[in-house]
Specification:
The chain is an all-alpha fold and 62 residues long. It is built from two helices and no strands. It is extended, with a radius of gyration of 15 Å.
């Protein structure tokens, strides 16, 4: 339990360093970015550097 709290605290620190808490943009996308950074942010400090690739979506027809 303590390890989880330390992990999330490090993730919150990573999100804070990126300025995610100071921006005025409030949307689902920004909230998701903050949550993912808090959960996966500590991996960057360990050198894992996780990357997420979005799939190519089809264009709407006219």
């Amino acid at each position: 339990m303590i390890l989880l709290l330390v992990w999330l605290a490090i993730g919150a620190l990573a999100a804070g360093q990126r300025g995610y808490f100071t921006t005025g943009d409030t949307s689902c996308a920004s909230a998701t970015t903050i949550i993912v950074t808090i959960v996966a942010g500590p991996l960057n400090y360990f050198g894992v550097n996780p990357q997420v690739e979005c799939p190519t979506l089809p264009q709407p027809s006219e």
